[in-house]
Structure formats: C-alpha cells, structure tokens
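Handoff note, outgoing to incoming analyst
You'll be picking up this chain. Sequence as last confirmed:
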Amino acid sequence: MSTETPTILPGSASGIARAANALTAGDVVAFGTETVYGLGADAGNAAAVARVFALKGRPPQNPLICHVDGPAMAKTIARVDDRTAMVMAQYWPGPLTLILPYAGGAAVADIARAGLDTVAVRAPAHPTARALISAFGKPMVGPSANKSGRLSPTTAMMVAEAFGAEVPLILSSGQCEIGLESTVLDLSKPDRATIMRPGALGVDDLIDLLPEVMAVNVTDNTAPISPGLLLRHYAPRIPVRINVRDNELSDGEAFIGFGPNPFTPKGQGERRNLSPVGDLDEAAHNLFAMLHELEDSGATAIAIAPIPDMGLGLAINDRLRRAAAASKVDA
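Most recent structure output, in case you need it:
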C-alpha cells in the first residue's frame, strides 16, 4: 500500500476535462462506474495500456475491457451484427460487457486484446464515466483499479490506498451503486451467447432476447478470452472461508453474515452483515467494501455465511469462490 496521496477529482465538468486531458497525454486515470472503479487509459496507446498492466501486475494474457460511450463508438473497434445491436439497444448503457469480433485497425492495441481476434466492449451507465469517455473521444481500457487478483475498489479512497501516487488522478463518482464487476457475455460466435462472468445481468434477464444464452463456469489461468476468469481473483490479503454454517470461528477470524438474525458465531472477532434483510442487491453493493474493511481490521481470516445461489447471488458466489481459491493457493 502506497503512502503517497493522489489527486481525487470531483465528477464535475472541470474534473472530467482534466481527466480527459491526462488520458490524451498517455497517462493512466482511475475513474468510477456503476460497477467498480477502473484504471483508464487510451485503448490504442500501447505504452499507456502496458502501464495499466504494470500497475496492476496483471498477466499479459488476460485481456482488458474497452469502455465506450455507446454503440457508435463500439462499432469503431468491433463488428456489430443485428443480434448484437439489439442487445446494445436493450442493455446499454449498463453493467454488460460484450465479447465481439475485433474490427481491426489501431483503435485497440494488441496488448489490450492479449493478441486475440476478439475485443471486450462495455458502455458504462454512470454519467461521470460516460462523460469522461465522450470528452476523451475514443475507446479506453478500464480494468478494475486494483492489484491483480485483489479486491476490486468501490470507492475512490480504496483506489488511493491501493496505488497512492502511482495513479495520480482519480475521477470520483462516489461509492459504486452495484459493487460487482460487469456481466461478460460472449457474442463472438453468431449461433452462441455465453455468459463468461456472472454479474448484475444473468440468464433470466437475457433469455427473452437471447433464447440461446447459457452460463458457463470458467476458470482459465492460461489464455482466457475474457477478463475475470483467473482462478486467483477478487481476494483480500487474508484467507477466506465460504459457506460457513457452524458457529465456531477460529481465533481472530472475522465473520460476514447474510440475512435477518444470522447465527451468532462464538468468539470476539469482527462482525459484518452484507444485508440484514437478505437483499442480494444490497449484499453485492457491500461485498468488496466489507472485505476491504476486514482485511485491514487485524483479523487473521474471514468466514462468510452461505449466500443464495440465485440472481445476483450467482455473481457474489463466483467472486467468493475465487477469493477462497486464492486462499488455498496461498496456503
């Protein structure tokens, strides 16, 4: 964790203009969206994109999402057929990343696509993020503003704590509304629609428009075609146990519950509840913030109660399984 302090810009016209000028100069700028905060850079500037990889410590085979301000900009970097255009019209702007055939040209550097013939594209819904992209005027990469494999940030301060002055400008949008990364939907094959990473939009949301849609459980540590597929991901610095049903915690272990009147574990550790009323939207909104708090609380580990594996709970459990897997890798 860096001790130097970056500049946190408000999401005002002057803040957006300053951030856009920094992107034009080839700098990296953190920015907020409705999902999580991202590290923004000119998608066509290979040196700027390489800086993003270096800051995150991200494996070079792991492609980045390109952020655009709408379908017109998306068409400058991706091939958009009628089916994709319908999906964009229905769900953009919003928490949906589309994997599409790359249109070619220099608008997206090879390093951003990990050399693939596809490109991941999203139009975020947060007005500050959209205004930044429009002011910049070109697609920009925007992976989560965290060190690779660690917790995604949902506030500007989390970004500042992770990177310090290594990322000198952060365009704030407050706390992220959703709090989980976007759904990633692979539409690169004309007869398939595959959810590669669960998020706020699931099969039930997409199936009326895409009867062929299906979700897959993918872990790829070699050459993933989508962000968010590495086994070690979304992890705090201390071990995580999930689906904890017993009421015995290890000494120093913190606990995160879910729902009304969760069992009271024995012990003196820190306690949190993702949603006392059992609301999955609230749980997703709080997840990374609570994990972030607890990894700095002095706890030796974090135990987490079962989360319903339905709706947004599918995405929450995906992140928790990868966090727990990272703990096993570290062991």
